[in-house]
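Notes from hallway chat w/ T.B., transcribed later so I don't forget. T.B. wanted the structure written out for a chain they're using in a teaching module, and asked if we could keep both sequence and structure tokens in one place. Agreed to drop them here.
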Amino acid sequence: MKTRHRREFLLGSLAAAGAAGLAAMPAPAIEPIRRQGRPLLRLGLAAYSFRQLLNLSRTPPTMTLDGFIDLAATMPFDAVELTEYYFPQTTPAYLAGLKGRCTRLGLDVSGTAIRSDFCVNNAGRLKMEIDHCKRWVEHTSRLGGKTIRIFGGTVAKNDKEDRARRQCIDAIQECCAYAGQFGIFLALENHGGITGTAEQMLALVRAIKSDWFGVNLDTGNFHSKDPYADLARLAPYAVVTQVKTEIRRAGRKAEEADLKRLVQMLRTANYRGYLVLEYEAAEDAKTAVPRHARILREMCG
């Protein structure tokens, strides 16, 4: 598949037909996504925003995923992002129930978000991480999701980043090959460790050779002198975006994020995809999320 055609493939729905055939084809390293048409931002809500209520360590938790979906439907969201931490089970029947609930309420499942560490310096643990990711490809497919948020991981003690990066690249490519059979994109988040800076992210992003790979752009996770500039460098590679209501510059306390600037940054990159609110600030999510949902809805159109 030619590079131009490969990236233009992302113009429509991320869940495209012919996934199995495309996944088997070799592809050059990723480059900025070329998108036709005007920017299109669909507003989603991450389950992680209500992490205290969804916490499964409480018996029973204050909120279930069913309750989270019901709550999201009362606000101006187009979709929900379902975080793996809050699934009490992943049986086909349970996943079908969540998907059906979203369908009845007019919500998409934009995707899922999982924990992964592809830097582990142990062959057995690495296989477990890869197998875990592949299982969630299957779960996400049953839910009707389009993307899976993944982490790169953290360099183990007494290991070297170059070695860990090479291993991470190979592991993600293996997982992407599997995900492509289901029409699902793996989205690497800028999340500390070997993805803590724009330079580290770009070193990975430009090295991974898969049609089924992109960036999960988390607007709150760069802590440099100019997080907005770093985010703008990664925006052209994003297949899903998690927007935070705060940013933290190097050596400074958290400050309110310029949501208008973030949305404009995505428009400049001609982004077409989900803008998922992942609320992490101190205010109670039950009051803060509805307010930010209204603000983002106006900005996204």
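Follow-up for T.B.: The chain has one domain: 42-300. Might be a good example for the class.
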